[in-house]
Specification:
Largest sheet: 14 strands, parallel
Order of helices and strands: HEHEHEHEHEHEHEHEHEHEHEHEHEHEH
Strand order of the largest sheet: 1-2-3-4-5-6-7-8-9-10-11-12-13-14
Shape: globular
Radius of gyration: 23 Å
Number of helices: 15
Strand content: 5-15%
Helix content: 25-40%
């Protein structure tokens, strides 16, 4: 179907289209800044420079650099040989590098590449955070990295999402959590680990008081796996948990809620997107959040579920009572005008929520107008809202965007466009799973 012209918002949430020429220019300028040891070049980002970045040029540029702290090599076409060259640079006896974050995601490194990065893990004392998402790493590669991390006190976190890592490697990573008490977090999203693997992985979390975040979205957890997970995490210091796209359903949310209801629960951020949660499941969650006076959850991700009017009624009460919630993702649910009205009522009595994502919900003109009225209230704290793909008319969307052009509210950023095609909730949920909820492990 045809698409109507998008109506830009006051501060649209948009992405910049990067042309091959601009990537080449950016790569050249970044290399020059690195070689000049510019104090302003703290983050060297070569994302998508595949076919442009030459490893020899990178190594030459880093010869005397002492200022770069983050090296981002996402989708740069790193080969196994390149990985070996990179490791040689990072581990050189004469190196003055102070790199703390290394991101080599979206490069097909496989087992040999993982071996090379493992050498860097062992030998670069400044390295604290490693990201190797979507690198073609199997259990052999994962175990090689795990061995390098064991008893290593300088690396604090690692992300190995979208690989081919199974339950066979979880014992190795569990040993890291047990033996390295400085280790703070791991992300393994979209790996076929399963419930038994996650049970083994989290066996020692309670004993590591620094372990604070766990990303396990899309690992085939299921409702049974949640029971093992909650049992292992109770009494821990875990603050950030991403468990999206795990087919938890209402039963799984009920189990999680029993933990959140406990005063000693340390969770601050939880991602539950794409879990087939209905209004009944959210009722359990909202009751737990409201009944625990010590609940300090600041981020709640619920995109791509089946939440409708009754969940919004419970959410209204959560918003009224929460003194901590700052970010709420409700994209790709079944929130209609009546649901939007309940959210608006909750916002009138809330002073903490700053980010609200309502994209791809069947909210019509009436619901959008009501939200517009409430967001104009100076007591409402919302700074960013996304209403892309709602069912409201072009006129209602234009009214919404135009109401905040004079800076009369706290609203700083609006994701706002109009499309004339009908709402397709199934397609929206699929899109959410692919593009939106991975940002916070759902």
């Amino acid at each position: 179907m045809g698409q109507a012209e998008s109506k830009p918002a006051v501060h649209p949430l948009s992405s910049v289209h990067v042309t091959p020429q601009s990537i080449a220019d950016r790569t050249r300028e970044t290399l020059q800044s690195i070689e000049a040891n510019s104090p302003y070049m703290v983050k060297a980002d070569f994302t998508d420079a595949k076919g442009v970045l030459v490893m020899e040029d990178l190594i030459k540029a880093f010869h005397i650099n002492t200022n770069v702290k983050e090296l981002i090599l996402v989708n740069t076409g790193i080969t196994v040989q390149n990985a070996q060259q990179l490791t040689a640079l990072l581990c050189s006896t004469f190196s003055t590098l102070g790199i703390e974050t290394l991101d080599v995601s979206q490069n097909q490194l496989g087992f040999p590449g993982a071996q090379s990065i493992a050498d860097a893990v062992r030998n670069l004392p400044s390295l604290k955070h490693i990201k190797m998402n979507n690198c073609g790493i199997n259990d052999s590669g994962a175990q090689c990295i795990a061995r390098a991390l064991r008893n290593n006190t300088h690396v604090k976190s690692i992300s190995l999402g979208q690989n081919s890592i199974t339950a066979a490697s979880m014992g190795d990573f569990a040993e890291i959590i047990r033996s390295n008490l400085q280790f703070q977090g791991i992300s393994l999203f979209h790996n076929p680990i399963g419930a038994d693997g996650i049970k083994e992985l989290t066996e020692h979390v309670r004993g590591n008081r620094n372990f604070a975040w766990l990303g396990i979205a899309a690992v085939n957890l299921g409702a049974d796996g949640v029971r093992h997970l909650v049992h292992n995490l109770q009494g821990s210091n875990l603050a950030w948990l991403g468990v999206g796209a795990n087919n938890l359903g209402d039963d799984g949310v009920y189990t999680l809620s029993s933990w959140i209801q406990q005063e000693e629960c340390s969770l601050r951020s939880i991602g539950l997107g794409g879990n087939d949660i209905s209004d009944t499941g959210f009722q359990h969650l909202s009751f737990a959040m409201r009944s625990n006076a010590q609940c300090g959850i600041t981020h709640l991700g619920l995109g791509g579920n089946r939440l409708s009017y009754y969940a919004c009624c419970d959410l209204r009460e959560v918003l009224k009572t929460s003194a901590s919630l700052q970010s709420l993702i409700l994209s790709s649910n079944d929130v209609n005008d009546m649901g939007a009205e309940e959210i608006a009522k909750g916002l009138m009595n809330n002073t903490t929520l700053q980010i609200l994502m309502l994209a791809k919900n069947p909210i019509g003109d009436e619901g959008l107008d009501r939200l517009r009225e409430v967001l104009g209230n100076p007591g409402v704290a919302i700074k960013s809202i996304n209403i892309q793909g709602v069912s409201a008319s072009q006129e209602a969307v234009s009214r919404f965007c135009g109401s905040f052009s004079n800076g009369s509210s706290k609203l700083e950023e609006i994701g706002c466009s109009y499309r004339e095609e009908e709402v397709d909730s199934d397609n929206w949920r699929a899109l959410t799973k692919k593009q939106e909820i991975y940002q916070t492990d759902y």
